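Protein 1 of 2
SEQ + STRUCT:
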Amino acid sequence: MVILFQGIIRTNGLRRKRSVSVEANLEIGGPRFQARVLEWSRSLLAFVLPTINLNPNGENRTSQMRLPLRSSLIAAVIGFLPCMAKGGPPEIWFSPQSGSVEYMKLFEPDAPWQQAASYVKVFQLTPRRIRTDSDADLAKLFAWLNEHHIELAQSTGLIPPHPGFKHTEGVDGDQAAMAARIQRLGGRLAYVAADEPLWFGHGSHIPGAYQLSVAELAEGAAVSARAFQKVFPDVRIVEDEPISNFTDPGWMDDLGQFLAAFRKAYGQPMAAVRMDIAWWFPEPWKPRALAFAKYLHGIGEPVGVIYDGNSKDSSDAEWLGNAQKNYTAYETLVGSAPDEVIFQSWVPHPTHLLPESSSEAFTHLILQYESGRQVIGAGAAR
């Protein structure tokens, strides 16, 4: 079932319809709902505004919709847009490091993370799992997610391999095979998480790294994304970027150009852009994070943040403690939670995922966050 937003405009005697469907399982007021309705609003405005053509008497010769009605429609849409920035609680994503010996225990019928799992909106699968896990393990994982109404995301590179460049992170060519395997084993793919395309395809200055133009990068990423879309027509794309890595002063302008070029090439906008923050970098991350969030919200793009520990943490307790410090620092700085919160690790820690009652388990961090989120927000607001 879907909620259908629809506008009908009469132009030159012809009824023209603009509509967008919003999935019924989207939380009303949540970031996904906001993005879909904002997309409809932009489409409607793009249709209405160019058709205004007034003669000296104030009459519109090209449309049977009179100016007062047209003005009211435009005012209603424009007045509605600021409301879209007022989101509800963040969406919780979970992506534990794939090497943990407890990984598959998450998907047992009585897995001891029932409360934490109830907060999780999306479970993100690593490329390693979809490529190397057995059919039996993946089918079990997908069935558990379906049963618990947790959406599936697949992380992967969207930069197609190019001759003459290094095959770095962010570059993959097996998207069609991934999509086919997910479908065959019962997975319902809702999202693809693009592995830092702007950085690995355009911004990195590592010798041999890709140095594509923004337009070429966006076109290639759209081709890769369509390999998933052919199998899962409603799949949405999110983009991760390492904001601490960029050294060119115009990197945020490049991001805006990439988002616009990808939208044009793919036919849909990014569902969110998420910050991968090097919390430990000597250069302060706070000014960049603030500027990044402000810029994305200014163009109506949902913002996500990967909440993790530090890469050199030597124990589960140290990693989890730093992750808590990091998300507290971000939300205190910004004054609110991001639209998406991604609890993710690709380093050796935390090795323990379960049980959620253990202070040294990754799932416990989700409980800590949910119990403290309102307190953090209230403290930042004072």
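Protein 2 of 2
SEQ + STRUCT:
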Amino acid sequence: MRTYFRVWLLFSISAISTATAHASTVTGKVTVTSPTATLSSGPVHYRATATTTCSKGISAMGVYTAPYKRVYVVKGAKLDTVLNLSPGTYDTVVQEWDNCNSSAWVHVPVTVQPITAPTGVTTTLAVQTGNNTSAANTFLSQSNGNLGATNVSKVDIHTLLYPGASTDIYAEIQPWFGDKRHMKVGYVSWDPTQVNKQLNDMVSRGINGVVIDWYGPADPTEPTILAWLAAAQNTANFKVMIMIDKGAVTLSPCSGCNPQQTMIYLTKYVLQHYSASPAYATWNGKPLITEFDLDISAAKILTEKGAAIDSFYVREIDGGKILDPERQTAIDRKLQQAIARLDAA
């Protein structure tokens, strides 16, 4: 019995020595480039490569988070993955296996800290990525490209301009949502609460005022203008401007007036009822009014006594001639001002 025991022991040692000698003929190396720090407060990015003297190359690489607990494996000599590890301390191992039945590995200690909000901060990821606009939460993205309620950057929009720009930026407002003539978007445009939400939303993004598409005092959307003027009066440096829509000519005409007379009436209405508000937009102390859609539909170059003359044919929105002398004078003045600005440029 004693002799047999000794023979068995010597045989075992011999077998182990032979295996070790065989493995040592092949050498491998694992190089880890990430993670580079032992401390992490979120998902851990593992990136590593492997080399070997095995003529058959690398078979695979993997990551262990504990002995015998392999959580990731990939074929080849490159490893690039992100692991979501629970908070705790890990002695992770990145290992390679070659095609000569050999392997190499490196230990990568990692400590994952729990993510905690700073003292006094009460927010969540859902809040920070949820709808932060004045759009209704029920409004979904549409096939025509209209974006649904979502999270939009609060960076001041003026940063998109050239350095040092002092340009005022206005947003154009459609006043009709909630009117049965238009689609439902989840709110009513003339609701004072909604108007205040939109105004605060604009201010938070650096917008200086609104241009309201106006259909005249007889249109059901008139309360929207009144709500905006009231809200803007309580907000410093935020202005409201009226854009007379071509639809106002037919929706809010003065009694017995032709289109030219209606436009004059509408302009005077804005001056008398809106421009006195401290929230109304001005330029050099004068109220600003824009319009949609005065159209120069044709232009020709004529000659008179050998000189070239630019001739503009300006018509009303119904295609008729502009006959009112006061209206003609106003249009002529606008054209002259525009030409003067072009000459000065």
